[in-house]
Structure formats: structure tokens, C-alpha cells
Design brief:
Length: 228
């Protein structure tokens, strides 16, 4: 029941990623919770937050919470181990997001072994953050409930585009039966709509909505260019 209900609440909707980098002024669970609450008022169908305290601070919101834990300096750092994944679920995440690439995980487990271990621990859904079509196919076979295009352009398998990787969305939607969450470099409403048209089940947007330093820089650069 939880699986069906959560997915239906996200179908065709916008997930807003509320994250701040370490050392930034907004890097506080209370602030992220307020940003998330504001996103819900604006129509977000779900939110995505990073860190155990941020997940706990947003677990009360009336929309599905996608939780993750960024840790370590290895290639795989998005909820990199089974221990991390269990902690994210225990903090209250409705969906546990983890690295869904085919790269070696720090604890030596395969993605399939990680998903199996997490299934035995919780009924939370599992989202695999993928970097390519092969990742998405493998993550689906491993048992992931949702497939994200989050890591497209951040591994060696696909170039980093200036906007969303629409081609990957189309390829994954055509080859995989699990819902595709378009995520990564979606900067405008037009791009978000294009992702849905390309076959995405839902769209996740972060920087363009919740990272004021980057948004300010976009405007400052445009104003500066016009002035010169």
C-alpha cells in the first residue's frame, strides 16, 4: 500500500531538492525544513533532503520525503553503504536515494545486495541515482523502485550537458519499466515540462529553486554583462 500511495502522489509532479553545501549560510536543518515547507506551499509533490538531521526535520511534511546521506570523498558518496541507507530510512525518509551506478561501493556490497539488505530493514521505497542507461537497467534489475538521472554527466559514461539529459530520460523511459525521475541541471519550468514530455514520471529540481547563491550569480552575471 505504501509503495502505490507514494508513487501516485509523485506521478507527474515536482520534487524539490532542498540542500545546502557545508559551510554555506543555509546549511542548517531548521533552514532546510523551512525551505521545504515553502516548496510544499508552492505545489511540490515531494521533497529531497540530504543528511539525517534534515530528514528528521522534514519527516512531518505532508508529501513524500526523498532522503539521502552524502558521505566520504570516494566516487560513490550518495548514501554509499547499507549502513547509510538504513540510517536514512530510520530517520523517516519515505524514499531512500542512493548511488545507483555500477561503481564499487565503499562497503564492498553490490547495489543488489544493498537493496536486499535495505528491503529486510524497512518498507521505504528505494531510488537509484543513475549516470547512464546501463546504470538504470542494472538498478532496475537490482530491485530499485525509482530510477533517477541524477548522476548523468558526473561519471565517465555520458557528457555533462548544460541542461537536463533529455536523451537519457527518453532512453531510460523506453527501456525500463520502473518510474524515471528526471534530475540534474533542470533550471527552468520549460526544461521541467520537457522532461515530463520525454517520459519522466516526475521531475526533481534543486539549485534553480532552493540555492540562492547560484540563482543570484545567474542574475548578477546577466546584469553585469548587460552593463558592460
Amino acid at each position: 500500500m505504501r509503495f502505490t500511495d507514494t508513487l501516485e502522489r509523485l506521478r507527474g509532479g515536482l520534487i524539490v531538492s532542498c540542500q545546502a553545501y557545508p559551510g554555506e549560510a543555509m546549511r542548517d536543518p531548521r533552514t532546510m525544513a523551512q525551505v521545504a515547507a515553502a516548496a510544499v506551499v508552492g505545489g511540490a509533490a515531494g521533497i529531497r533532503v540530504q543528511g539525517i538531521e534534515d530528514i528528521r526535520a522534514t519527516a512531518h511534511l505532508p508529501v513524500p520525503v526523498v532522503g539521502l546521506w552524502k558521505d566520504g570523498d570516494a566516487e560513490v558518496f550518495i548514501t554509499p553503504t547499507l549502513v547509510h541507507a538504513k540510517a536514512v530510512a530510520d530517520a523517516g525518509a519515505d524514499i531512500v536515494a542512493l548511488d545507483g551506478t555500477r561503481r564499487r561501493r565503499p562497503d564492498g556490497l553490490t547495489l543488489a545486495e544493498t537493496i536486499t539488505g535495505l528491503r529486510a530493514h524497512t518498507d521505504a521505497l528505494i531510488m537509484a541515482d543513475c549516470g547512464s542507461l546501463d546504470d538504470a537497467i542494472a538498478a532496475e534489475a537490482a530491485g530499485a523502485d525509482l530510477l533517477g538521472t541524477t548522476l548523468s554527466g558526473y561519471t565517465d559514461e555520458r557528457p555533462k550537458s548544460t541542461g537536463p539529459d533529455v536523451e537519457l530520460i527518453e532512453l531510460a523511459a523506453a527501456r525500463c519499466s520502473r518510474p524515471i525521475v528526471a534530475e540534474g541541471r533542470i533550471h527552468t519550468p520549460v526544461q521541467a515540462a520537457a522532461a515530463i514530455s520525454a517520459g519522466a514520471f516526475a521531475v526533481c529540481v534543486g539549485t534553480a529553486i532552493t540555492h540562492p547563491s547560484t540563482i543570484t550569480a545567474w542574475f548578477a552575471e546577466a546584469v553585469g554583462g548587460a552593463r558592460s
